[in-house]
Write a structure and sequence with these properties.
402 residues, globular, 10 helices
Length: 402
């Protein structure tokens, strides 16, 4: 008879992995859960390196996971933060059209928001100033359910709650091997420890496709890392932005464009752009990991993506290399900004799943294999949607145990 170390092993201590562990302990009390995280603490990657926005769900295809989970998750995240004393605020946001060509896309967002059950108010040029006096635009929409939070603190609280319910969260535990025999899943960590479980959840974010392959699963996608670079407004200039201001996004991309965000810390964050990273954890421009780069360049989807969107990508790279060009992009929304107003801030890396034909996966993506559930695409708005995502993954993995 096999001696199990736990019922469910969760790989990944970001906000999605920790929400999953928390959801399992709530849905099936007594189920033993172990979370393995390679870093020395929770939320060291996507979950702790973002603009901290609680997204409304306005951008996403009606009926998609992103739409349903973001709308539900936004309300739940606000409630969770309030119940646990975590800093947050429901600020609302503006999505601003600055050129006539953007007006049809802005109107389409109004319709999409209403389809997703989100309250949306349309604004003319003069009404924009009621919310953001320094912002320039032809028209805008105000989305009242958008907010801000500290998702790293949310992840840490989820870890505490899961542990209070009997789960174990182990840091510094990088998974190197995964095997399955019958009803047993075995994992070996970098330090040589072996853990046996009845089921496994892969919430490895930037490394989710690699973990799937370790488990003998062809995920059908490749994670291509995109670095998002941020600036902050200089302390004497933060009065230029009251809340959250976004451009009208290009529907061909999952990236929302350079936006203005007053965070829970009172600082105004500007960004991110989206440039290919030369390492999956490539938070600095000069960070290169040959194995990561070879994996990206050796994937057919990378080249298909580049052929299809080279012009957009060239613009993003130009704004990455030129602070003045980045400033000009910001000035479309905030004309008073100068390069001297922008102070470099820490970057993030988005784990974007790309299909072999170069298509960017535009929804959360889950895959099943015997005794396993793999979360293979969970970039923004995954932090906003983390509570419903956790419940969905918990439901799926608990079904594997029946």
């Amino acid at each position: 008879m096999v001696a199990y170390d736990c019922d469910v092993l969760v790989i990944g201590g970001g906000i999605v992995g920790l929400s999953t562990a928390y959801a399992i302990t709530r849905a099936a009390p007594g189920t033993s859960v172990v979370v393995l995280e390679k870093e020395r603490g929770p939320a060291r990657h996507q979950s702790g390196r973002n603009s901290g926005v609680i997204h409304s769900g306005i951008y996403y295809q009606p009926g998609s996971y992103k739409a349903r989970f973001a709308v539900r998750g936004a309300a739940e995240m606000v409630k969770f933060c309030a119940e646990h004393g975590l800093r947050h605020e429901v600020t609302g946001k503006l999505i601003v059209a600055t050129e006539p060509a953007e007006l049809p896309r802005l109107h389409a967002l109004v319709q999409r928001g209403r389809q997703n059950g989100i309250p949306v108010r349309e604004l003319g040029r003069a009404q924009i100033a009621e919310f953001e006096p320094r912002v320039r635009g032809l028209a805008a929409i105000h989305v009242g359910t958008t907010g801000i939070a500290d998702f790293a603190k949310v992840a840490a609280r989820l870890a505490e709650l899961a542990e209070d319910a009997g789960a174990s969260v182990r840091y510094g535990a990088e998974v190197r091997r995964i095997g399955r025999r019958g009803e047993t899943v075995a994992v070996r960590t970098a330090e040589g420890s072996v853990l046996r479980a009845r089921a496994l959840v892969n919430c490895a974010g930037l490394h989710s496709d690699r973990v799937a392959r370790l488990a003998g699963v062809d995920p059908g996608i490749r994670i291509i890392p995109f670095r998002g670079e941020f600036y902050e407004l200089a302390p004497g200039r933060t009065h230029l932005v009251r809340g959250l201001v976004y451009p009208v996004p290009d529907p061909a991309f999952p990236f929302l464009g350079v936006h203005l965000t007053r965070g829970v810390d009172g600082q105004v964050h500007i960004g991110p752009n989206a440039v290919p990273a030369l390492a999956r954890e490539g938070y600095r421009r000069r960070t290169i990991r040959p194995a990561d780069l070879a994996t990206t360049l050796g994937y057919p989807g990378t080249w298909q993506l580049a052929r299809r969107h080279w012009r957009y990508g060239a613009g993003e790279i130009h704004r990455s290399l030129s602070k003045r060009a980045f400033t000009e992009a910001v000035r479309r929304l905030l004309p008073e900004v100068t390069p001297e107003d922008l102070i470099p801030a820490p970057s993030g890396v988005r784990a974007q799943a790309v299909l072999p034909d170069g298509t960017l996966a535009d929804d959360f993506h889950f895959a099943r294999s015997p005794r396993m559930v793999h979360v293979l695409n969970a970039p923004s708005p995954a932090a906003t949607a983390s509570l419903p995502i956790g419940r969905e993954v918990a439901r799926r993995i608990l079904a594997e145990l029946r």
